[in-house]
Amino acid sequence: MLTNIKEINEKIQAESAFVETIQNELGKVIIGQRSMLDRLLIALLSNGHILLEGVPGLAKTLAINSLASIVHAKFSRIQFTPDLLPADLVGTMIYNQRKEEFLVRKGPIFANFVLADEINRAPAKVQSALLEAMQERQVTIGESTFKLSEPFLVLATQNPVEQEGTYPLPEAQVDRFMLKVVITYPKREEEQAIMRLNLEGKLPEIQPAVDPGDILRAREILRDVYMDEKIEKYIIDIVFATRYPDEYNLAKLKQLISYGGSPRASINLAQASKAYAFVKRRGYVIPEDVRAICHDVMRHRIGITYEAEAENVTSEDIINEILNSIEVP
């Protein structure tokens, strides 16, 4: 483990050069949505998964498809519907009459980048099949277990508008996602540029710029990003404030929070902060990195009570209150 900050910084600046290449290639076809693209890279570098919430038509499919093209990796898109079965996702055993034996037919989960479109439209059995693959990085079909190829990134989307005919993800399953990113409409100028680009009839071609091996190597190098003990304690304070708000002079939040972040929240906030520093081409984590990524890591890990709903208080408001109250190192 490197200890000299200057040495670490120089190493990270050299090793993170490919990040700019990826951002430039993505910028050819996706206008705006910089925050979403950065979060995609953070999840990819941290070996995590993303839950994306936004109305249709905000370039979610285009973003992950383009990222797969740049990384020269396999992409698959699964449209979740109420009649979807686990076998449609992971694969199944089929009988070969000629050979008189069962053969494995692998499902679309066997890819590097998987887009699970409208994940809350499929029943719990299908959702759990996907989440098992996300957590264990393997799939069992019949008596055979298959390792999923690395890198493996799931980008699941949810439409926040329609609630009819949906199966909300249980809290324990939502916790498996490293980040929950809420995306909004583009700005006026961005939408005008998007309109022009699409009216031209052909999107610019994306060039493969990175190999999957480069991503796996970057994950190893990410461990060298320096995180001071004060930053570690800052992360612990943020997570503990969601569990025991009265210990942080936030007694008013006690009635609003039904449950706080799990230890997975602390781990993911630390990993995401390191990845955020890496994407910014810096070899050390600063408090601003933690604050920048905190909402995406924490918003789906804080349960709100009926009182909070009655007062129109969201998990976002609670995170803001905590960040404004806890002393920054």
Explain what you see.
The structure is a single chain. The chain is an alpha/beta fold and 329 residues long. Helices cover 47% and strands 15% of the residues. The strands form four sheets. A five-stranded parallel β-sheet has the order 2-5-8-1-9. The chain has a two-stranded antiparallel sheet with strand order 3-4. Strand 6 (138-141) and strand 7 form a beta hairpin. Helix 10 (229-243) packs across helix 11 (263-279). The model has no long low-confidence stretch (mean pLDDT 87).
Task: List the secondary-structure elements in sequence, H or E.
Answer: HHHEHEHEEEHEEEHEHHHEHHEHH
| Gross morphology | globular
Count of helix runs: 14
Strand order of the largest sheet: 2-5-8-1-9
- The total number of structural domains is 2
Q: What separation lies between the terminal Cα atoms?
A: 24 Å
Secondary-structure-based class equals: alpha/beta
Give the uncertain stretches in residue-range form: none
CATH architecture title of the largest domain? 3-Layer(aba) Sandwich
State which percent range the strand residues make up: 5-15%
User: Tell me about the biggest sheet?
Assistant: 5 strands, parallel
- As for the CATH topology of the largest domain, it is Rossmann fold
Work out the number of β strands: 11
- Helical fraction equals 40-55%
Please name the fourth-level CATH homologous superfamily of the largest domain. P-loop containing nucleotide triphosphate hydrolases
CATH class of the largest domain: Alpha Beta
The whole-number mean of residue pLDDT values reads 87
Radius of gyration: 21 Å
